[in-house]
Amino acid sequence: MTRYGGYYGKLLRVNLTTGKIKEESLPEGLAENYIGGRGISSKLLMDEIEAGIDPLGSENKIIFITGPLTGTVVPTTSRLCISAKSPLTNLIGCGFSGGYFGPELKFCGWDGIVIEGKSDKPVYIKVNDDKVQIEDATHLWGKDTFETEDVIKKELGDKRVQVACIGQAGENQVRFACVVHDGHFLVGRRGMGAVMGSKNLKALVVKGTKGIHVASSPDKIWQVYDEILDIMAKNPVVEIFHDHGTASSVALVNELGFMPTRNFQSGFFEKISTVDEKAYFELSLKPFSCWGCPVYCRRYLKGKKVTFSRPEHQTTFALGSLLENADTEEVIRANLLCNRLGLDSISTGGTIAFAMECYQRKILSQKDTDGLALTWGNSQVINELIEMIALRKGFGDILAEGSLRAAQKIGRDSEKYAMQVKGLEVPGYDPRGAKGIGLNYATAPRGADHNDGWTIAEELYVEGVDRLTLEGKGKLTMEIQDKSKAIDSAIFCMFALDFGYTLDFISTSITAITGMKMSPEKILKIGERISNLERLFALREGYRGKKDDTMPSRFIQEELPLGASKGQRLDLETLLRDYYRQRGWDEKGFPTERKLKELGLESYFYLVKSGR
Ligand code: SF4
Question: How many angstroms separate the CA atoms of 431 and 494, rounded?
Fold first, then answer.
């Protein structure tokens, strides 16, 4: 038993090759130096898997893990982290979901579950407190995520179990297949669903009855609770999120001219009013929330053709403006299809947009695409492609590899239309219109992920921060990246950045729950340690520092042609120089020995020496 509150001090290890199940103590020092969630899983992956392994081979491990705050009364902490080496990027693949799974896993009495090896037939893992069983899932193989969850609940005769499962995309090892829980909550990016599929693991099912020991008195914990409600009450963003969720930024980003349109050929979508927050709100049924969260930022929508939850900003861009898909209900339908089949909507949209631009430029013809005319805005073709990708059918098999690998296969100079960084498709803010997010895409240790350093929280919403200037963006990006790593480790919902959770507040909550003295400086230092550790993981996988901190040439060479950011390009060279200096890395983007010593990571310095 750990001496800290919020932890059980133990990990469950399940080997699918041998069927062996065992309990292990949480290694010494992990809670203090990495907190939980992202921090601990990245450290375990760094130390437990060999460099260069095949992410879809049995040597990869997949970790389901929570943080010390998960399952406590502290609002917005219902998160689940799933991590493995990513089959899309070869980097740390961690992703997060809200919903109910994280707290339920915690109530089983485990801080995390490490799954290794590969089953010789489809299985699912059932965890009921200390009772852990590997169950046959042959009858579930081929079912989508909605059916899978329904069948499991029916068979167990228990609607209260929580299920995280894969659909056909994960089974077929689509490199951007996701893990889905409760139909609406996804660990989306980087192919954690494909890793489950590669292990013949259809689902993880949890139900727990244990309580969580916390370090402080009930009065202190309720004080933290009240403080969070006070922060939320004072912040108008919370009400906006309640009404419109992340889709609240769609019209604004478009108005400012950096809403990616037609595969980033433009930052302004003329038909945005059919897929923005107001269009969704007209279909509003009722809001819903993650476990224990008072925000209720999710919403069910009911249209004439489809009923499902409201697409996020990122899905609206990826399945809407990026493809010039201007039909509200068709965007909702495409989102529903992705969730059922178990596909990440950003990479799905990004890869289809790549194919459509290749078609526009006559690099691809109907001969290459099984007869499909890949014209912009054709929602029928979009839906067909989504299914073909998930089933790896015909041309879909090429796209199932992600835009970078698809471009390498297609050749004919198509790579410049693959809008990705380190293999991960670029999210829904054109970096020419917000320089900090561009710097984050280029340097984030998971590839182009907005959540690695969501500078938009400041570039869009904080007075005095100029989204178009280069000045100060190195420091801003680094600090938000490090703060995000701590948020991902506690684990808070990433919207904490929008709601104005300060480092002081994060420090108060972690200290109250765990009893560890976590000053704001210490938390930021832990975030910096995780950022550097994940950078070292990338070096170990063959990424070469600055040489690979690149962006698609379109962002650097082509000006945005329309709207409020017209004429903008990205001066990545200047941004990187500033960023490396702020990080204490050398000019080639490698962490220095001094920096690694300061962070207690000096034992990994050999990776810098061999990577240079
Ligand atoms: S703010 Fe929204 S996404 Fe975050 S925990 Fe609350 S309901 Fe879930």
Answer: 20
Q: Is the CB of 248 under 6 A from ligand 1?
A: no
Angle, to 10 degrees, between the axis of helix 473-490 and the axis of helix 435-443? 60
Name the E strands within 228-294. 284-288
- The neighbour count for residue 351, using CB atoms within 10 Å, is 33
pLDDT of residue 497: 79
Dig out the tokens for 465 from the structure. Answer: 């921060």
Q: If residue 163 lies in a helix (H) or strand (E), which one and from where to where? A: strand 162-165
The helix (run of H) or strand (run of E) holding residue 228 is helix 218-234
CA-based nearest residue to 255, from 460, 498, 464, 470: 460
471-522 pLDDT, tens digit per residue, is 999 999 999 999 999 999 999 998 887 888 889 989 999 999 999 999 999 9
User: Is the sign of the CA dihedral 315, 317, 321, 324 positive or negative?
Assistant: negative
Inside any domain, residue 365: yes
In the predicted model, is pLDDT for residue 1 greater than 70? no
CA distance linking residue 298 with residue 301, whole number of Å: 10
Question: CB of 75 closer than 6 A to ligand 1?
Answer: no
Q: What is the rounded distance in angstroms from the CA atom of residue 540 to the CA atom of residue 534?
A: 10
Give the helix, strand, coil percentages of the chain, each rounded to 5: 45, 15, 40
Q: What is the CATH number of the domain that holds 340?
A: 1.10.569.10
Q: How many CB atoms lie within 10 A of CB 608?
A: 21
**What is the four-CA torsion angle of 484, 79, 423, 399, rounded to 10 degrees?**
-150
Q: Best substitution site from 100, 295, 491, 494 to test ligand 1's pocket, by max atoms within 8 Å of Cβ?
A: 295
Residue nearest atom 7 of ligand 1, based on CA coordinates: 289
Rounded Cα distance, 609 and 596, in Å: 12
**pLDDT tens digit sequence for 108-141:** 999 999 999 999 999 999 999 999 999 999 999 9
Regarding whether 471 and 403 lie in a shared domain, the answer is no
Regarding the beta carbon of 238 and ligand 1, being less than 6 Å apart is answered: no
Using omega within 30 degrees of 0 as the cis cutoff, is the peptide bond preceding 212 cis?
no
The H-or-E segment that residue 185 falls in is: strand 185-187
- The range of the structural domain enclosing residue 258 comes to 239-419
Residue 480 lies in a domain: yes
Ligand 1 pocket mutation, candidates 66, 70, 73, 78, criterion most atoms within 8 A of CB: 78
Q: Are residue 139 and residue 72 in the same domain, yes or no?
A: yes
